[in-house]
Amino acid sequence: MTGREFDNKISKTIEDLSDPLTYNLVCHEHRLGEPLPSIPKLQRIIELVREIIFPGYFGNTSLRPNTTRHYMGVYVDELYELLSQEILAGMCFECIDEQVGRAKEYTIEAKETATAFIEYLPEIRRKLVADVNAIYLNDPAARNVGEVIFCYPAIRAISNYRMAHKLLELNVPLIPRFISEMAHSETGIDIHPRAQIGESFTIDHGTGVVIGSTTIIGNNVKIYQGVTLGAKSFPLDEEGNPIKGIPRHPIVEDNVVIYSGATILGRITIGKGSVIGGNVWVTQDLPPDSKVVQSRPKEITFTDGSGI
Amino acid sequence: MTGREFDNKISKTIEDLSDPLTYNLVCHEHRLGEPLPSIPKLQRIIELVREIIFPGYFGNTSLRPNTTRHYMGVYVDELYELLSQEILAGMCFECIDEQVGRAKEYTIEAKETATAFIEYLPEIRRKLVADVNAIYLNDPAARNVGEVIFCYPAIRAISNYRMAHKLLELNVPLIPRFISEMAHSETGIDIHPRAQIGESFTIDHGTGVVIGSTTIIGNNVKIYQGVTLGAKSFPLDEEGNPIKGIPRHPIVEDNVVIYSGATILGRITIGKGSVIGGNVWVTQDLPPDSKVVQSRPKEITFTDGSGI
Amino acid sequence: MTGREFDNKISKTIEDLSDPLTYNLVCHEHRLGEPLPSIPKLQRIIELVREIIFPGYFGNTSLRPNTTRHYMGVYVDELYELLSQEILAGMCFECIDEQVGRAKEYTIEAKETATAFIEYLPEIRRKLVADVNAIYLNDPAARNVGEVIFCYPAIRAISNYRMAHKLLELNVPLIPRFISEMAHSETGIDIHPRAQIGESFTIDHGTGVVIGSTTIIGNNVKIYQGVTLGAKSFPLDEEGNPIKGIPRHPIVEDNVVIYSGATILGRITIGKGSVIGGNVWVTQDLPPDSKVVQSRPKEITFTDGSGI
Amino acid sequence: MTGREFDNKISKTIEDLSDPLTYNLVCHEHRLGEPLPSIPKLQRIIELVREIIFPGYFGNTSLRPNTTRHYMGVYVDELYELLSQEILAGMCFECIDEQVGRAKEYTIEAKETATAFIEYLPEIRRKLVADVNAIYLNDPAARNVGEVIFCYPAIRAISNYRMAHKLLELNVPLIPRFISEMAHSETGIDIHPRAQIGESFTIDHGTGVVIGSTTIIGNNVKIYQGVTLGAKSFPLDEEGNPIKGIPRHPIVEDNVVIYSGATILGRITIGKGSVIGGNVWVTQDLPPDSKVVQSRPKEITFTDGSGI
Amino acid sequence: MTGREFDNKISKTIEDLSDPLTYNLVCHEHRLGEPLPSIPKLQRIIELVREIIFPGYFGNTSLRPNTTRHYMGVYVDELYELLSQEILAGMCFECIDEQVGRAKEYTIEAKETATAFIEYLPEIRRKLVADVNAIYLNDPAARNVGEVIFCYPAIRAISNYRMAHKLLELNVPLIPRFISEMAHSETGIDIHPRAQIGESFTIDHGTGVVIGSTTIIGNNVKIYQGVTLGAKSFPLDEEGNPIKGIPRHPIVEDNVVIYSGATILGRITIGKGSVIGGNVWVTQDLPPDSKVVQSRPKEITFTDGSGI
Amino acid sequence: MTGREFDNKISKTIEDLSDPLTYNLVCHEHRLGEPLPSIPKLQRIIELVREIIFPGYFGNTSLRPNTTRHYMGVYVDELYELLSQEILAGMCFECIDEQVGRAKEYTIEAKETATAFIEYLPEIRRKLVADVNAIYLNDPAARNVGEVIFCYPAIRAISNYRMAHKLLELNVPLIPRFISEMAHSETGIDIHPRAQIGESFTIDHGTGVVIGSTTIIGNNVKIYQGVTLGAKSFPLDEEGNPIKGIPRHPIVEDNVVIYSGATILGRITIGKGSVIGGNVWVTQDLPPDSKVVQSRPKEITFTDGSGI
């Protein structure tokens, strides 16, 4: 291949890739001066919230009783600035052209939303303290609360969920979903920010857990790794697209335990106090205090002599 | 422990660890001047391809209509250089000693392979646009295409797969596998680059999905988290080693849906239009339009009074 | 909202967040001068051990036969310093107030523990060489040993496990758990450092694997992604807290194979040579050479016409 | 010192440091949402301009003839965004409270100024090409033009000066001074951005060169390290403050050479073609073609026997 | 050169370089666990002090009236920890073997010294406010105090000097000198931390300024770039080594101005109110209100026709 | 300004900047695959050499007697790889088109040159030990040798010079000059790598020192800040370009001391044992043991009442 052939091939490809017809659907067009969501800033936001909620565990701090207030002040201040920016970026990301002129209103709205979120932080801490305590009490392998906060992926996933859920309630676009996915990538736990989850919630190990967007979970629920609270099917509209916003995920009442790998699909209700064994497939309502497990496996003899 | 005792222990251990007999099998001996695969460069390659395919979403860019061509040109240029280096590194990694002298031929081959990959980028974009669209239409929780591209791990996993698959077709060693594993670590979705996957492919949530190396998947297939398309067993050669390259993973035909946690093993065929329920174990062919679910779970009464 | 209102809201929130009553349970109070566990240092420790065990694969080195000893010396030296610090940090993290004065004894103990760990490195290498070999022989898709070491998440998870297990045997607090979680986040494989695992251990793909703290695994065992070796239930003490330290996870004997998604719970024994099919739920002992698979799925006809 | 004493001392100091009376003069009060000048962004701006002017020398690029246009496009685009931000930050830095509401006008003005600067880049390149050529021809030690561009601090200082000077002409506050100081710190050459410097300007070595704000330099001037073109004294106003804006630095006409360490002070004129020897002190006009050197040093005999 | 020859040459060199006889004088032997001075930590210390002294100018902060106290608290806290560590590192660096056992006393002493330094910060701020004001009033080119703080290298050099001087008064070894050199490298201004400098001190431009260790400078002194306040000669002891600690640098009384490039050597006194012209060489006392300038340069005719 | 006007202006400027006629002289055209000199790699090379020469002072090491050899081995190994690359990059930078095909020969030559440099390291250490010792003995303010190595800019400048000088002797293009400029930027000391400098060389403070390319300096010479050893003038060839390679800088014989700010120009000889006072201008030979100082400054009365 000569240099010229090479150049021609590359140039031709650049032309092809620059043809708007090929990328129209998958291109995000940037408006001048408009902020883009920033992954490093979102990571810092999550880190700040974790450090505010669990003082002394995250961040690079040396918290002591008489320094706590200073750190809280500085963390909240930094959080406010970053969150305002990212909320604004989320709003711009989804806005359509005729909304572009409203930059100033958007900026004010973003700051008010950030303030409302910050005001809610004490309530988030109250809930997470209960979650931490529940996880600690539910795991004989946990030596102390500190180990739970520091090492358990569930805490990271539930923290991000409680943050993202509040931001969604405050009508912030895109950012809540992003925060959920960051926990998903870090822990393998995928909780949709729209799900409603009660108090003292426990996830153990957690890899592969999926909690869909219209799920409702009561108090004192415990679920293990690989549990799916999903949608069985969903109605399509006249054009064949899924209809948005219809409840299609389970309701899990108080004090339910769901063992690893169970798949629970559709808008069904798992009655309070139920125990669901691992690897079962549940698509119908279960009354309170149900205990269901998989049918007994069958013993077999292999005929091909090489494993299973 | 005195300082001398300490020094002796440490020195002794260093000696032990430096004994070639103990590391022969697990050592990669570097030849002077030979490039090693570089994880940061591979990460940059993936980032570049994502930004080229989905303009304006990844990277740190401010894409606008009249800047697109410039960005495409610069991204392709950087991609070309990095990819040539990493392909060469992959070739060197697997080459045996008598091939070492062929550095120059290898370099030329690496550049030609990188060029061929770049020429294929428009086709990768075409396929990924279809994948994005399929995912968007299949998920009522998705608010817009942008959210899918920006937040959905499936897009990251499928992008890496389509990249890695092409590189494997171009006979690049090691690098395709590495690119797959980077998506695996990031998303929990493990697609072997040798698998053959059709168009408009959807993965939802995705953690725990495994798609083995000889799998063949048709068009419009949708799979959920935790689905395994795996090998049941494999024949051994006379020395007891597994025989490489024998088809041993499923064929999944067009329009199949597989719910979470299903395990489908062996060179069997799932007929087109079939729906596989969650958590089932399938090791035999299914005719088209099959619908299978797990046997109904049994209700039990616990005798030990403590959960399950 | 005026600037003053904003300031009042933020100030009020900072006051609330600084109230010790709200964070007592979830605060780690730092003692002046006491080291905190450092995630970057722990990551470096893991990287160093990987590079020492598998010379030439990790780190930024250009290992050649006559440079190996130098690199081993420098890596061991850096490992010693970092590990001493992190062991000390782990000890301080869990110590209670009356132990604080013992900084000097703790420092000496931390160094001795680090030395003992380093002396054990040749044995860790011996075991990991066997694990690598087993994984290579068990996977027809693996082209060579190098690909296994470089790309397979199982190697990362098992390396961290073998490291963390030894540190736990040496009574290091917190750090072993942290090292496990780092592999868990990276690979989706969650092995408790207290588990006992034999030689030539194979995990394939691995996402979602959970191996509980009192599990005992024999030699030549192979498990696939999504397998849980967990606890079924656990007795509570008089105050309703779980009793710590009771064996509650399975014993898996030599030469067992467990396919993806199987859930095996409680202190039961899976007899040697058994094969467990995917997605089964096992809560009772299995004799040697058992082969169990899930009951055959049932075929169904969907009445709602929309999937499943 | 007890812990309490320590805490009291530190707390007392924090109180003192937080007393506005002690920092009023030296505090920059930040208005919410207002951008601060960013040193990393300014460094990137300088890097981008250097790379645009001297293609292929700076930045991380692999410029080739058919990639130049793409790189220029991307660099200019990035420069435009960063420069708009920093110009705005400079405007905000100096604005007084009643101007704060004008954020939108400021934003538009900042963008227009950035555009005007970019339009001037070809002229900056034309001037710098002449400067490079002059430096090359004036230094027998320079092997080629590339060495001059890559290694000579004068190029860095003059580039920054020509950039900063244009920004000052465009009425950008603060930022031009900052850009000058970055070159000053890097090279020891301190050129005030307000100085007027002609074409084909040469500085050799350069450490310690100072060119004051009202200096006027003609074409083909060459100065060596340590040369000061400074102000002798300046009139004070009625309150004893220096009166701003009065010409108080030298005029250096075409083709002048000034050797190292010469100090030339006040609004005097060094006539064209003059040569000023090293270390002289000049405070009066010199006619064209003057040649002045320091008085001959005197020989001495030391009486203290220890050096000088 | 064969591979073996190469290896031999390199190995031989490593042997030579490892021979203690060749590096005895220039080796710093590290004691296990002993902290080394850390340049990044010292840079952070300097940044913190600058941000504490000049709130809102340095660091990445968004200071507002009601956040100042929080930031002061957090900065002081971080400063305390880092400074304690670096003071300890400085003490260890110079300690001789028999002092090694005193780690605990050293640690306490380091913390007390750090506390004493922090208590002195308000006084450092008071002095630097006066310096800033003096520089602003002395430079017609300065537009406002903010520009002086943000851009003028003199502020960086004088800040570091006032910091380092206090640390030296507190008997901290090595670290003060290091802090001085960091300003020297950044600004070209070299002030020995032992020098005594009065209030309202001004340096303009500053590159090349040297202020020796026994210099004494009064109030309201202004010096320009390239000024040396140095030692003329120094007595040797019986072994020919310089005798340490003898006053050997100038005393510069109040209200003196020294123009660029002047060299003032030896323990002489420049009487108050004097003005020293540029480039002069002064080695004898000057009475108050002296005005001295260099002898008039001579005009010459060049005979070689080529410049000077 | 409308968006379209803006786009037109920017596009027009990009066109102008992409016109090869405007950048021909100042463009470095990159050949595919050819390495560019890398500033971070050169910085690492300098750091490695400093750490090899002065064990325990630079880098992040914890050198102890029984770890020295390991560190030397690893540092030399890393140095070899980086230096080979940078030497090759320097060779490519200056090569003209017809030389491009010789990549392989160039690579071999670069490696041999790197080896030769490494073999010379013990001699560089021997010389630098003498320099350190001389500086320590010459400065009453130095408390110990460690302070000199750690803090004195002269050591950094002389180290880089001795490195760069050897590389120039080995005919490495560009890189030696770059290494000199890195020290120049860091310290303000500008020593041309071609200069010849004897043993036990001392520079005090150093900012502004310039030592030209054909300078020859004997043993035991000491120079202060701001000293220029420069060229007075240089003959031009027939086309008016300076003739390269003609001796035009001073010869400074053994045991000479030159005080701050002295300017010594041309191919003159400063006889051994001479002492040159500060700020003098010397353009003629001085016999051995000369002592020259500036003419006595004159006292003046200012007529304008405002300083000088």
From TrEMBL, chains A, B, C, D, E, F:
Pfam families: Hexapep. The keyword Transferase applies. GO terms for biological process: amino acid biosynthetic process. Gene3D superfamilies: Hexapeptide repeat proteins (2.160.10.10), serine acetyltransferase, domain 1 (1.10.3130.10). GO terms for molecular function: serine O-acetyltransferase activity. It catalyses: L-serine + acetyl-CoA = O-acetyl-L-serine + CoA. It comes from the Bacteria. SUPFAM superfamilies: Trimeric LpxA-like enzymes. CDD domains: LbH_SAT. Keywords: Acyltransferase, Amino-acid biosynthesis, Transferase. Its EC number is 2.3.1.30. Belongs to the transferase hexapeptide repeat family. This is serine O-acetyltransferase. The lineage of its organism: Bacteria, Pseudomonadati, Bacteroidota, Bacteroidia, Marinilabiliales.
